[in-house]
């Protein structure tokens, strides 16, 4: 029963100890999920907490040298299943060790990203996961100097400060996707980039260029359009490519969401996929297999990236001074029905 006249937020750890008939240190061990507490005492403490309406003061616990058993997760938004797949891996990994997630979304605003990092690292969480961070150089040095556990996800390329990270073979994946189109006979391949402030976007563009150079094809800047990993810009970039005097016979978009925009633009142009133009994406989010036609794409192991990043972060929480680790997981080309060889000259539909 809650103490009369005492709000839940004013119930202290000493109140819980008195109610449960145990010591303050026993309650502390239960709160911090420590061992050496008998099941019977643990049950008494948990029952007392529930009856009193005890609300743990996370900041007080961490300031006192304990852990919050919470991991901060910073993402740009929740509008794509790309984020959902990564979060699934993170959540599954943390669940096995009784850690919770504290989620913040930046809505792709750099100032919000920095502000949230500062907020989360002020004794709210034990460690920090940052998915596709856009402003990492602004705070990575501070995190490093404070030995605050953190791991970047899908951002191996651009930060000037060496930071723990988990990503995928973006360059290799883009190289293999472009090579696949070249092997089908395509020679004019349009490319829609991602946000070029992100390392993964730069690596995918470089992989595309390397494949063209390997096949002796001069890189045409006109065929490269800067996107932002979002569907509306994918649509616009594809429209620009289709409007060229000599349009591409294939378009490689830097992620599946942009590829969906490109597919919409192709259809609005009165063309058929893949008869008139081939489309290829990157990520292999669940929707890629269900669009019409099913999208050929480069599979990133998104769920595995999330679980690997969470596991790495837990290692840093246990040992903040361990050496910087950077894990690069393999990509895989997934061939579906959105690509084929180009039509013979003269048979392609009017663009």
Automatic annotation (TrEMBL):
Coiled coil segments of this chain: none
Domain of life: Bacteria
GO molecular function, one term: DNA-binding transcription factor activity
Keyword rRNA-binding appears in the UniProt entry: no
Annotated ranges, domain HTH lacI-type: 11-65
Matches recorded under Pfam families: LacI, Peripla_BP_3
Keyword terms, alphabetized: DNA-binding, Transcription, Transcription regulation
CDD domains from the UniProt entry: HTH_LacI, PBP1_LacI_sugar_binding-like
The protein's name: Transcriptional regulator
UniProt source species: Reticulibacter mediterranei
């Amino acid at each position: 029963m809650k103490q009369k006249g005492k709000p839940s937020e004013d119930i202290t750890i000493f109140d819980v100890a008195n109610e449960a008939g145990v010591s303050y240190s026993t309650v502390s061990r239960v709160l911090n999920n420590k061992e050496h507490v008998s099941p019977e005492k643990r049950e008494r403490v948990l029952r007392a907490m529930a009856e009193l309406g005890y609300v743990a003061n996370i900041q007080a616990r961490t300031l006192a040298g304990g852990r919050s058993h919470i991991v901060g997760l910073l993402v740009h938004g929740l509008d794509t299943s790309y984020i959902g797949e990564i979060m699934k891996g993170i959540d599954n990994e943390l669940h096995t060790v009784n850690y919770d997630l504290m989620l913040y979304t930046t809505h792709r605003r750099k100032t919000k990203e920095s502000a949230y990092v500062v907020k989360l690292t002020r004794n709210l969480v034990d460690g920090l996961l940052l998915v596709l961070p856009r402003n990492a150089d602004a705070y990575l040095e501070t995190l490093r100097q404070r030995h605050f556990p953190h791991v970047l996800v899908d951002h191996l390329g651009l930060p000037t400060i060496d930071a723990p990270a988990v990503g995928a073979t973006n360059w290799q994946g883009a190289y293999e996707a472009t090579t696949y189109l070249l092997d089908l006979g395509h020679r004019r391949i349009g490319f829609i980039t991602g946000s070029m402030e992100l390392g993964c976007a730069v690596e995918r563009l470089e992989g595309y260029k390397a494949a063209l150079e390997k096949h002796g094809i001069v890189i045409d800047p006109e065929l490269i359009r800067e996107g932002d990993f979002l569907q509306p810009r994918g649509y616009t970039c594809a429209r620009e490519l289709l409007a060229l005097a000599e349009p591409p016979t294939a378009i490689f978009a830097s992620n599946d969401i942009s590829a969906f925009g490109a597919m919409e633009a192709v259809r609005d142009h009165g063309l058929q996929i893949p008869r008139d133009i081939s489309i290829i994406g990157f990520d292999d989010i669940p929707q890629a297999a269900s669009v019409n036609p099913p999208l050929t794409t480069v599979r990133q192991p998104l769920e595995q990236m999330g679980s690997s990043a969470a596991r790495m972060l837990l290692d840093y929480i246990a040992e903040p001074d361990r050496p910087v680790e950077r894990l690069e997981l393999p990509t895989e080309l997934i061939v579906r029905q959105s690509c084929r060889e180009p039509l013979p000259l003269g048979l392609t539909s009017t663009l």
